[in-house]
Amino acid sequence: MIHRTLGPRTVGAVGLGGMPMSIEGRPDAERSVATIHAALDAGVTLIDTADAYHLHAGEVGHNEELIAGALRSYGGDTSQVLVATKGGHLRPGDGSWTVNGRPEYLKEAAKASLKRLGVEAIGLYQFHRPDPQVPYADSVGAIRDLLDEGVIQLAGISNANVGQIDEANEILGGRLVSVQNQFSPAFRSSLGELRHCAELGIAFLPWSPLGGIGRAGALGEKFQPFATVAEAHGVSPQQVALAWELALAPVVIPIPGASRPASIEDSVRAAELTLTEDEIAQLSA
User: Fold this and answer.
1) Which domains does the chain have, with CATH numbers?
2) Residue 204 CB neighbour total at 10 angstroms
3) CA angle 274, 223, 226 (to 5 degrees)
4) Is 53 a catalytic residue?
5) Choosing from 53, 105, 125, 136, which is the catalytic residue?
């Protein structure tokens, strides 16, 4: 497994996104746990979650608890696994999403996540989404305080633009280690943020790197170049998409969602797939 740096930590080049296991179309708990265990067996050491990854209003933190339980029941060593969670984005339970970036709320949310994960300090905590009603500096200031207090070990942000990346890094005193933005063959608007992270040496974690739930399976049909390259290498278009993202910058760590062992096993193999410069250019065009 190829490894990449996330702040002072080293993780696998491909992570696991836990969201599909806890929202619409969620699999049964047994299959979800099997998927997480398969990811660990394949060498995945970064697992992404959030307190908002749940379906119903009364189950905030469903995915965090699922991941914590899977780690406890895994027979192997999990000491090197970094669990990244997020706060500030809420799901009332009616299918909608809201935000809350108030500092006091973020601190409460982080401590609740800490309890659900059953750890002494959260490995990586990210401000999930900017709140237009709260100054960005105030929200990130809460993340800084959590870092200073030892509630979290590493700090990141999500759904941020270039200006917010710089602002957050300044507020955190140069300790911003990750930016988690949407990026995929279908959504390339965050390419500027990806390149900015590469310049700063900050990990860039593409969420929905295969196009999102319900769309990843059709990636090769909608984006023919990925199917063409996949056929040439004898691999899946999804594996090519992840290999392409990895090739864009050494700070990129895709976190594809998975709800079946076979899916994450295929994704992890992208770290070993070497694309030619011509292929990368073709896929980037």
Assistant:
1) 3-284 (3.20.20.100)
2) 26
3) 15
4) yes
5) 53
